[in-house]
Amino acid sequence: MNSENDESPRGKFISFEGGEGTGKSTQVKTLQDTLKVRGIDVILTREPGGAPGAEEIRALLLTGDPDKWVPMTEVLLFYAARVDHLQRTILPALEAGKWVITDRYADSTFAYQGAGHGIAATVIQQIHRITTDNFWPDMTILLDADPEEGLLRANNREAEISENLREDRFEKMAGSYHQRLRKAFLEIAAENQDRFHIVPAAGSIDAVARRIWQKVTAAYGPEIDQI
Ligand code: T5A
Q1: Biggest distance spanned by C-alpha atoms of the chain
Q2: pLDDT tens for residues 156-176?
Q3: Ligand 1: which of 15, 69, 104 to mutate, judged by most atoms within 8 Å of the beta carbon?
Q4: pLDDT at position 157
Q5: Is 5 among the domain residues?
Q6: What is the CATH number of the domain that holds 211?
Q7: Are the beta carbons of 147 and 20 closer than 8 angstroms?
Q8: What is the mean pLDDT of residues 177-187?
Q9: Torsion of CA 140, 145, 146, 151, to 10 degrees
Q10: The domain containing residue 216 runs over which residues?
């Protein structure tokens, strides 16, 4: 994707996935800081969101009643936001040689709207191909935790935010939904072992960060050392 005159190699694209409150937002920031210390130019982004229009769509998706949208509308809104995010933020950064860490990407749609809400994976795959040209991360870290533990962490954090500003539409869905999500993420990881790395999310923030750093250095150690 680099132009002929651009010597910088394409950056790495790393996504974080997992259920609610598994520590993604905490760990993406820690990984960004650790990579920066090593001299890597790295941006942090998130889904839904990550570009101005996509952030507007985020507000539509994450606030309000759990049954606000039918599942297919949700899929289309997530992909509307994703295309904007990809074209305006992710691809330009990668082409400029920056690394991109995203807090969620398309695997979340396969888990939440697919396994969680019954949209067939083949249908989501078709939409993914059409809208993103089948673009996937180089590496995906799946933070795996018991949903009860994750929801407890997420709810404690949301309790500090006033009710009309809470982005908790998905957190309010039933416990069985969150159990399906965990199973779905583990199945997606098993089907995509070339890029997925499962990291247990239990333990201290530092302990989880060390597990993630081991995965990143195992995959990209020589490239990080060269910078
Ligand atoms: N969604 C998204 C879809 O349905 N389809 C899609 O295609 C996409 C892209 C996004 C929602 O949208 C859905 C999924 C989500 O429901 P969000 O607000 O971004 O909404 O929600 P999450 O991604 O789930 O983010 P959360 O903020 O809820 O959870 P995180 O980021 O996993 O957890 P984090 O880091 O914020 O931590 C939660 C709390 O726990 C503490 C933190 O300090 C924080 O208070 N914590 C720990 N405490 C103890 N030990 C540790 N190891 C801890 N790590 C963090």
Answers
A1: 53
A2: 877 777 777 777 777 777 778
A3: 104
A4: 73
A5: no
A6: 3.40.50.300
A7: yes
A8: 94
A9: -90
A10: 10-221
Q: Is the pTM of this model over 0.70?
A: yes
Answer yes or no: is 226 within a domain.
no
**Domain membership flag for residue 78:** yes
Q: How remote is the CA of residue 26 from the centroid of ligand 1, in Å?
A: 8
Residue 177 in any domain: the answer is: yes
- Decide whether any atom of ligand 1 lies within 6 Å of the 20 Cβ: yes
Our CA angle for 148, 151, 65, nearest 5°, is 125
Closest ligand 1 atom to Cα of 20: 24
Atom of ligand 1 at shortest range from CA of 201:
52
Cβ of 24 below 6 Å from ligand 1: yes
Please report which confidence band the pLDDT of residue 109 belongs to, taking 50, 70 and 90 as the band edges.
very high
More confidently predicted of 223 and 31: 31
How many whole angstroms from 227 Cα to the centroid of ligand 1?
Answer: 31
Confirm or reject: Cβ of 153 under 6 Å from ligand 1. Answer: yes
**Ligand 1 neighbourhood includes 108 CB (under 6 angstroms):** yes
Mean per-residue pLDDT over the chain, rounded: 92
Examine the pLDDT at 118 and tell me if it is beyond 90. Answer: yes
Name the pLDDT band for 7 (thresholds 50, 70, 90). Answer: low
Residue with the smallest CA separation from ligand 1 atom 43 is 26
Number of domains in the chain: 1
